[in-house]
């Protein structure tokens, strides 16, 4: 069996998408923690175009970009399928995965919002979350239906990392009173054993998010 | 008989990608031209309420949006004609990496470069040059990104072979030259020589006129 290695960084939700997928498929792997201020030669060699984590290396061959890694894992290990069998349903899953990706910038703006911007940024984030709740999730327990799939993994950051974002900004949006079904999804998602047992520590994450926001907001960000 | 409709726009490289894919697979379809700049039809808004854009493929009444998602759907649904993606999971991951790289990095930088001025344009020019260098590198000694025949990356990179060349002439944003990027130059010649590509390009004069009108309108508002 070929060796599987994952280059990651502990606070990254993108890295966790890959960890969850590997564990859901029961794939053994070696984890390598990267110091992003001092990237390893291996990382620079495996992902020269973006120089980012996560990078999955399978039998010496590197795959970069978390969403691409998820599709690679799904296609390489067929046990416990994480995408629907029907082509149209697969296309819908990929559409919503892409939607989440396209809206990253809005969530990032919310995270970095100054007092003046907060109201505007909050409104934009709420609009996106409503679309995700009403159109992507609908009445389903998980985005994947009765069990979690790649789309749930791609939105996984909403169930844990977004709590820290809201704490740092000082505004709560993803609450039961505002987005009941999406909120319930976050609860159900985190109850899944593979997810529950594989989340970064909340208080460490919060400290990291506060530090990162200050770094991005300083007059001379690196 | 299965019904296939494509809501697109004659001038759009994204729409063109889908037409090329359908034709490669020998799929009969009805093309509905949407003048998205000026008017979004009720059907378009019904089939793509989230983004309100073209292209949208409607197969047996079920809509799919976002050109990369549509291309994968076409490849999975119709087994006639050549495959758009390779069969091997690692090769597929590479195709997805490069199509994403093109759409998320190259296209925006090139597009911004064409429509911006002054310092912003200079910055876009530098960024575009670096990105084109990376693309040139991935071609190495292959005829097409897909190898001996065109594949999904070639179809997705259509913008640089035609739309960019027209825009460069019009707006004076010279980032690509055959001297600076000889491999891309050869790729463009071979690519535009493929019947399926050259028979499905928007007419040059019409496209130039549209871009010229937009450029002049943008200059006025600045």
Automatic annotation (TrEMBL), chain A:
One of its GO terms (biological process) is glutathione metabolic process. GO terms for molecular function: glutathione transferase activity. The keyword Cytoplasm applies. InterPro entries: Glutathione-S-Trfase_C_sf (IPR036282), Glutathione_S-Trfase (IPR040079), Glutathione_S-Trfase_N (IPR004045), GST_C_Tau (IPR045074), Omega/Tau-like (IPR045073), Thioredoxin-like_sf (IPR036249). It catalyses: RX + glutathione = an S-substituted glutathione + a halide anion + H(+). GO terms for cellular component: cytosol. It is found in: Cytoplasm, Cytosol. It comes from Fraxinus pennsylvanica. Keywords: Cytoplasm, Transferase. This is Glutathione S-transferase. Residues 3-75 form the GST N-terminal domain. It comes from the Eukaryota.
UniProtKB/TrEMBL annotation, chain B:
The keyword Electron transport does not apply. GO terms for biological process: glutathione metabolic process. The keyword Transferase applies. Pfam families: GST_C (PF00043), GST_N (PF02798). Keywords: Transferase. One of its GO terms (cellular component) is cytoplasm. Residues 2-82 form the GST N-terminal domain. It catalyses: RX + glutathione = an S-substituted glutathione + a halide anion + H(+). InterPro entries: Glutathione-S-Trfase_C-like (IPR010987), Glutathione-S-Trfase_C_sf (IPR036282), Glutathione_S-Trfase (IPR040079), Glutathione_S-Trfase_N (IPR004045), GST_C (IPR004046), GST_C_Tau (IPR045074), Omega/Tau-like (IPR045073), Thioredoxin-like_sf (IPR036249). GO terms for molecular function: glutathione transferase activity. Transmembrane segments: none annotated. Its EC number is 2.5.1.18. Residues 88-210 form the GST C-terminal domain. Belongs to the GST superfamily. HSP26 family. This is Probable glutathione S-transferase. It comes from Fraxinus pennsylvanica.
């Amino acid at each position: 069996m070929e060796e599987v290695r994952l280059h990651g960084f502990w606070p990254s939700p993108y890295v966790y998408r890959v960890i969850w997928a590997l564990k859901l498929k029961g794939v053994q792997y070696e984890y390598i923690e990267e110091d992003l201020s001092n990237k390893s030669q291996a990382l620079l060699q495996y992902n020269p175009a973006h120089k980012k984590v996560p990078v999955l290396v399978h039998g010496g061959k590197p795959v970069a970009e978390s969403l691409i890694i998820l599709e690679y894992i799904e296609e390489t290990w067929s046990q416990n399928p994480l995408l629907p069998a029907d082509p149209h349903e697969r296309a819908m899953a990929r559409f919503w995965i892409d939607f989440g990706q396209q809206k990253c910038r809005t969530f990032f703006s919310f995270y970095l919002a100054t007092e003046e911007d907060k109201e505007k940024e909050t409104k934009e984030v709420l609009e996106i979350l409503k679309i995700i709740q009403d159109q992507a999730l609908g009445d389903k327990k998980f985005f994947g239906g009765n069990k979690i799939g790649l789309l749930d993994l791609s939105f996984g950051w909403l169930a844990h990392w977004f709590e820290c974002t809201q704490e740092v900004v000082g505004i709560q949006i993803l609450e039961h009173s505002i987005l009941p079904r999406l909120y319930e999804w976050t609860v159900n998602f985190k109850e899944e054993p593979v997810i529950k047992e594989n989340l970064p520590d909340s208080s460490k994450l919060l400290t990291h998010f506060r530090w990162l926001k200050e770094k991005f907001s300083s007059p001379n960000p690196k | 008989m299965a019904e296939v409709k494509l809501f697109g726009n004659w001038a759009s490289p994204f729409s063109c990608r889908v037409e090329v894919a359908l034709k490669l697979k020998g799929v009969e379809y009805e093309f509905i031209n949407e003048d998205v700049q000026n008017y979004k039809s009720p059907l378009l808004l019904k089939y793509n309420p989230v983004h309100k854009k073209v292209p949208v493929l409607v197969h047996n009444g079920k809509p799919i949006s976002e050109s990369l998602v549509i291309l994968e759907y076409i490849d999975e649904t119709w087994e006639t004609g050549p495959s758009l993606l390779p069969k091997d999971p690692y090769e597929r991951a590479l195709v997805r990496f490069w199509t994403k790289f093109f759409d998320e990095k190259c296209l925006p930088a090139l597009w911004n470069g064409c429509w911006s001025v002054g310092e912003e344009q200079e910055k876009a020019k530098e960024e575009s040059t670096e990105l084109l260098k990376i693309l040139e590198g991935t071609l190495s000694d292959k005829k097409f990104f897909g190898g001996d025949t065109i594949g999904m990356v070639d179809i997705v990179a259509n913008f640089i072979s035609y739309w960019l060349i027209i825009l460069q002439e019009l707006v004076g944003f010279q980032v690509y030259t055959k001297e600076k990027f000889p491999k891309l130059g050869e790729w463009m010649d071979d690519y535009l020589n493929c019947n399926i590509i050259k028979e499905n390009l928007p007419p040059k004069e019409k496209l130039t006129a549209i871009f010229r009108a937009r450029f002049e309108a943008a200059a006025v508002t600045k």
